[in-house]
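HOLO CASE FILE
Compound: acetyl coenzyme *A
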Amino acid sequence: MGKITAAVTAVGGYVPESILSNKDLEKMVDTSDEWITTRTGVKERRILKDPEKALSDIGVEIVKEICDKRGISPTELDLIIVGTITGDYRFPATANIICDKAGATKAWGFDLNAACSGFLFSLTVGTQFIESGKYEKVLVIGADVMSSILDYTDRATCIIFGDGGGGVLLEPNTENLGIIDTIMKNDGSGREFLFQPVGGSRTPVTPENVAAGEHFIYQEGRAVFKYAVSNMADVSVAIMERNNLTGDTVDWLVPHQANLRIISATANRMGLSEEKVMINIEKYGNTTSGTIPLCLWEWENQLKKGDNIILSAFGGGFTWGAIYLKWAYNPR
Ligand code: ACO
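Model generated. Tokens follow.
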């Protein structure tokens, strides 16, 4: 028998119904639709408004869709990994809650924190359990409820992010389809440019720091942009080179949707034409761990067996990486 690879065999996604447009934001902070559109590419984003709902509810929808599409029961899942920075609670892990609510009674699970690279890091970890032969059904989710940690008086951050996410099912494959190669990176010295200052063991929550808004996301956008634009392109080119891929033989780039300018710079460095790049930032903004699976979810019906796909992300931490994925099925 040939080598076992981890193939994606189904995709699911979920975004909340409520839309927050650039026009809405114009009424909340000193900004404009024109500024947001030209600087980021975002036109609107989804917000999880229902106070009874949290990240696990998004996760359950994703699990249900994936199991329905694949024709399996959640009870057949072995493991659920959730890439996120906005779990229901600091603990327990949201993966536990999703297993419970979705009826994934056999599965165990955990959350993985790598900011905007959360889905790629989780996919890399999930792949190991399939390749080793340990498990046959690993479900990997990337999702975030960014509205829960945003300050809607801070125009530097609130215009970028949205809520939602997606996921994939990984199963063993012997045709050399699925995850072919991964490169994951981090550089913790970048932590000061993009982080949530308060709420961890470094600075626990106090009435004073909450009143000062320090429990919200802090980002020095210009500094992050500089690192993001070079690292995301570098790692994407590196994974192409080491797998002998060119702009002609790559079928799709699935970039993290943080900023249209970062996506364009990455695609240019890879020598890709525009129609090969998945972009939905205008509809959903930056959903952190959610962006890449949300793209796969929206483009699933255009993907063909054997397509060469590069997934690429850069996020807080700093974290970044790229995955070479060979698609395993034709549109159903
Ligand atoms: N509306 C209007 N003006 C604004 C806004 C706004 N919403 N925000 C900032 N400005 C102003 C600034 O005050 C500044 O004014 P000044 O020149 O008078 O000082 C000017 O616009 C330019 O500000 P910059 O911050 O330099 O704008 P920039 O072009 O860098 O765009 C942005 C900001 C969109 C945040 C960009 O820097 C970016 O995309 N950075 C990378 C984000 C990223 O990739 N993050 C990683 C993933 S997220 C994660 O991991 C959780």
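CASE NOTES: The chain has two domains: 5-177, 180-326. Residues 31, 35, 39-40, 115-116, 155-156, 159-160, 194, 221-222, 224-225, 228, 258-259, 262, 286, 288, 314-316 surround acetyl coenzyme *A (CB under 6 Å).
CLOSED: yes
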